[in-house]
C-alpha cells in the first residue's frame, strides 16, 4: 500500500483510468447512432447523463493531480505546447483533408467542410450545427476538452497567485457558478468558455483531493451520505450534458457532477489497491499516457471517416455495425498513432544528428 500512496501523487497513477476512459469514449461514440429513440420520462432517466458528467469531471480532476503553480508566463508557454498546439494541428489536418476531398470529388469546400473554418478558429461548441451571424458553424467535437483544460489551467494557476485562501476559493466558486450562468444566456460560446470556467473548478477539486489525500483517507458517514444523496437526486431527476450546456437541475446537477467524479476516483483508488499487471493493463496505460494525442486522433477520424455508412450497410444488424465501427476506429487510430510515433522518432534523430554536426 505504501507504493500506491506514492503513486497517487503523480499523473502516472491514473494512466490506466485515462486509457480505460478513452476506450469507453470510443465505444460510446460508436453507440450514438443507435440512440435515435428519445428516452421516456420517469425516475432515474438521468442516471446515464450524471454518470457521463461524472466521468468528464473525473478526467479534469485527474489533471488537477498533476497541477503545480507556475508564473503566468511559464504556465501559458507550457499549456500552449501541451494543449493548443495539438488542437490547432488537428484542426489544420481536418481542414486540409476536407479541402482535398472537395477537390477529388469536385464539390464545394464551403458546403462540405467550410463550416469548420470559423468553428475551429473560434473554438465553438455548436453541437448539432447552427449559424453565427449567418455563417454556418459546427462543433469542435471532442477537442473541446483541450480548450476547456487550457482555460481551466490558466484560471486556476492565476488564482493561486492570490495570497488570500478565501479569495482563491471565492474566485473558483465564481467560475463554477459563472459557467452555469453562461449556459443560461447562450449554448454556443467562443473557445468553449463555459466548460473552461467549469474545468477550473474540477482542477481545483483534483488538486484539493491530492493535497488532502482524500482518495485514501477515511471519511465520516454523514459525508458519504451527502455525496450519495446528491448523486441519487441527480440520477433520478437531473439531465447533464456538459458539452451542450444542459443542467436539468441547475447548480444541483453541477454539484452532482463533482460528487460523481469524486466517487469514481475513490472507486478507482480502491480497485488499484492491488497491483494491476498484464498486456491489457499495459496497453490501457500506454493509451492513458498519450491520451491528449488519442483525443486528437479520435477527433480527426470522427469527422473525416464516413462511419455512418457502416450503419447503413448493416441496418438490419445494428449491434454488428457498432462492433465493426468500434473495431475500425481502434484500427485506424492505432495506425495513425504508430505513424506519429515513427515521425516523432525520425525528427528527434534528425535533430540529434544536426546538433552533433554543429558541435563537431
From TrEMBL:
<feature type="transmembrane region" description="Helical">
    <location>
        <begin position="188"/>
        <end position="209"/>
    </location>
</feature>
<feature type="transmembrane region" description="Helical">
    <location>
        <begin position="43"/>
        <end position="67"/>
    </location>
</feature>
<feature type="transmembrane region" description="Helical">
    <location>
        <begin position="12"/>
        <end position="31"/>
    </location>
</feature>
<keyword id="KW-0808">Transferase</keyword>
<feature type="transmembrane region" description="Helical">
    <location>
        <begin position="320"/>
        <end position="341"/>
    </location>
</feature>
<feature type="transmembrane region" description="Helical">
    <location>
        <begin position="244"/>
        <end position="268"/>
    </location>
</feature>
<keyword id="KW-0472">Membrane</keyword>
<keyword id="KW-0012">Acyltransferase</keyword>
<dbReference type="Pfam" id="PF01757">
    <property type="entry name" value="Acyl_transf_3"/>
</dbReference>
<feature type="transmembrane region" description="Helical">
    <location>
        <begin position="280"/>
        <end position="300"/>
    </location>
</feature>
<feature type="transmembrane region" description="Helical">
    <location>
        <begin position="142"/>
        <end position="159"/>
    </location>
</feature>
<dbReference type="GO" id="GO:0016747">
    <property type="term" value="F:acyltransferase activity, transferring groups other than amino-acyl groups"/>
</dbReference>
<dbReference type="InterPro" id="IPR002656">
    <property type="entry name" value="Acyl_transf_3_dom"/>
</dbReference>
<feature type="domain" description="Acyltransferase 3">
    <location>
        <begin position="12"/>
        <end position="338"/>
    </location>
</feature>
<feature type="transmembrane region" description="Helical">
    <location>
        <begin position="87"/>
        <end position="104"/>
    </location>
</feature>
<keyword id="KW-0812">Transmembrane</keyword>
<feature type="transmembrane region" description="Helical">
    <location>
        <begin position="166"/>
        <end position="182"/>
    </location>
</feature>
<feature type="transmembrane region" description="Helical">
    <location>
        <begin position="221"/>
        <end position="238"/>
    </location>
</feature>
<keyword id="KW-1133">Transmembrane helix</keyword>
<protein>
    <submittedName>
        <fullName>Acyltransferase</fullName>
    </submittedName>
</protein>
